[in-house]
Design brief:
Four Helix Bundle (Hemerythrin (Met), subunit A); 2 domains; 199 residues; mainly alpha; three-stranded antiparallel beta sheet
Length: 199
């Protein structure tokens, strides 16, 4: 709900409200809120409640500095370590990304992107990189949801993802790292282009 902006940035939430809305007990809600606070998606303010974290361009750019390094490592590692079956899946994902780019289907793109990210992390076989990427993924996706309609070029973003998938499929670690850099250049440009909508 936070990533899809169903719970608005800056909005207050409570354990009781979330328990009622989700139909689950307050204990799992409390545990989830603690985890979301560690992931910087909410702020727990003692005696004041829980606030959904604001979305901030400057913070997003700092996140991208870290994401670039980790994403490059993940792409290189996946290219080196993928099995034949995983390489085939990357090829299929590249085709799916290109189809989404041609049709402009942003819903399909987001579904394919989720599958691609999961496969990259599995294939990289590095639990530390995986944990770091999972922490950044929700923050990045939430920023995308807020701004993509006015600032993103989804077809170009999908094509850049396809380039990474093809490089991993071919086992070319250097090409995979270069393709990851090209994607992060694109995401950084997208992030900077949102400044006028954030201030």
């Amino acid at each position: 709900m936070i990533v899809r902006l169903e719970l608005a940035p800056g909005g207050a939430v409570s354990e009781a409200m979330l328990a009622e809305r989700l139909g689950i007990g307050r204990t799992p809600i409390r545990e989830a809120l603690q985890r979301l606070a560690r992931e910087r998606l909410v702020q727990i303010l003692p005696r004041r409640g829980v606030i959904v974290s604001d979305i901030n361009v400057k913070a997003q750019l700092r996140l991208l500095e870290v994401r670039r390094e980790v994403e490059r490592l993940v792409a290189r590692s996946a290219a080196r370590r993928a099995t034949a079956g995983e390489r085939e899946k990357f090829t299929e994902l590249a085709v799916a990304f290109e189809r989404a780019a041609r049709t402009g289907d942003d819903v399909a793109f987001l579904r394919i992107d989720r599958d691609f990210n999961a496969l990259c992390l599995d294939t990289a076989r590095n639990e530390f990189a995986s944990t770091a990427m999972q922490l950044m993924a929700s923050l990045s996706r939430r920023f995308w949801f807020l701004h993509y309609k006015q600032a993103a070029d989804m077809p170009e973003t999908a094509r850049l993802h396809a380039d990474i998938a093809r490089a991993i499929a071919s086992g070319d670690a250097k090409a995979a790292a270069r393709a990851a850099d090209a994607l992060l250049d694109n995401i950084e440009t997208f992030t900077r282009n949102t400044v006028s909508t954030d201030f």
